[in-house]
Amino acid sequence: MRVISMVPAWTETLLDAGVDVVGRTKFCVHPETRVESIPKVGGTKQIDWSRVKALDADLLVLDQQENPRSMADRSPIPTFATNVCSVATMPHELGKLAERLGSPPALLAIVERWLQVAKQPVRERRPLEQLPGVIKWLRPPTTETRQLVYVIWRDPWMAVSPTTFIGSMLAQLGFGWARFQLDTPYPVIDLEQLDRRRTLLLFSSEPFPFERYADQLTELGFSAALVDGAAYSWFGSRALRFLEENR
After folding, report:
1. How many other CB atoms are found less than 10 A from the CB of residue 195?
2. How many other C-beta atoms can be found within 10 angstroms of the C-beta atom of residue 189?
3. Is the pLDDT of residue 247 over 90?
4. Where in the sequence is the domain holding 24, given as residue range(s)?
5. Last residue of some domain: 92, 118, 144?
6. Residue 153: beta bridge partners?
7. N- to C-terminal Cα distance for the chain?
8. Backbone angles phi, psi at 155, to 5 degrees
9. Binning pLDDT at 50, 70 and 90, where does residue 238 land?
10. 141 within domain boundaries
11. Which residues have C-beta within 8 Å of that of residue 136, sequence separation ≥ 6?
12. Helix intervals (H) in the chain
């Protein structure tokens, strides 16, 4: 089956499983050596339908958290949309996708690994200094740190709540005790309202390029770290490997 994937995490996972991915977004950059030869048809929020038609694909793969509904409504080819919102739902959503693709054995093997990870009890309290996926500590956490805020955007500052996939990853790894409780999945936050002595800010490497602003982030006065955003948010085979290596 010839597949166009509009979800970077699914593109990587499907390629890892040997699925014939013939189209991708410009953000589908892993695995690097294999995506170079796959044509781009747009981004996660917009798509060039003329390119889609030219690829003669059998299926357009989407995710409700990543892509707008209009992509499915306007697609000239059959679509399949997952809805990955947590570690717990991950095996079910990947299982449905595998079934739609004819149950490729390599993809089913990834589903089984996810089932093994998801059924493990959430790890108990883990010290913040043991946080995996840190690219660089800007200011290591202190003994007073009691709150963890995962930041994904600047101008305005935006964070993630425990109800997101990233939030469930942090909980699975043993940091649920420190997660900042927020009312909406991706709220705008006011750093001036946070206690600098007790708050650890995690600046994700994507979607905002926080690595370019490390010096400015250090000057904010919080305990802070740059973290690998793909490890925490790419919910296919990449997040699976991350959990398997760090549980």
Report:
1. 11
2. 17
3. no
4. 2-118
5. 118
6. 158
7. 35
8. 60, 65
9. very high
10. yes
11. 211, 214, 225, 226
12. 8-16, 32-35, 49-54, 69-74, 90-100, 105-118, 165-172, 214-218, 229-233, 237-246
| Residues 48 and 135 occupy one common structural domain | no
Q: How far apart are CA 135 and CA 137, in angstroms?
A: 7
Token pair of 246, please? 């760090």
CA distance 62 to 223: 37
- Asked if 7 contacts 104 with a C-beta cutoff of 8 angstroms, the reply is no
Q: How far apart are CA 62 and CA 121, in angstroms?
A: 29
**Helices of type H across 55-213:** 69-74, 90-100, 105-118, 165-172
How do residues 59-98 score in pLDDT, each as one tens digit?
Answer: 999 999 999 999 999 999 999 999 999 999 999 999 999 9
Measure the CA dihedral 52/53/54/60, to 10°: 40
Token pair 């089984």: residue: 112
> In the predicted model, what is the mean pLDDT of residues 199-224?
96
Same domain, 11 and 99: yes
Q: Based on the domain organization, do 140 and 104 belong to the same domain?
A: no
Distance CA 199, CA 168 (A): 19
Q: Does residue 88 contact residue 118 with C-beta atoms inside 8 Å? A: yes
Report whether 150 contacts 202 (CB < 8 A).
yes
C-alpha distances out from residue 204 to 79, 172, 198, 201, Å:
30, 18, 19, 10
229 neighbors 235 (Cβ within 8 angstroms)? no
42-63: average pLDDT: 97
Rounded to two decimals, what is the model's pTM? 0.95
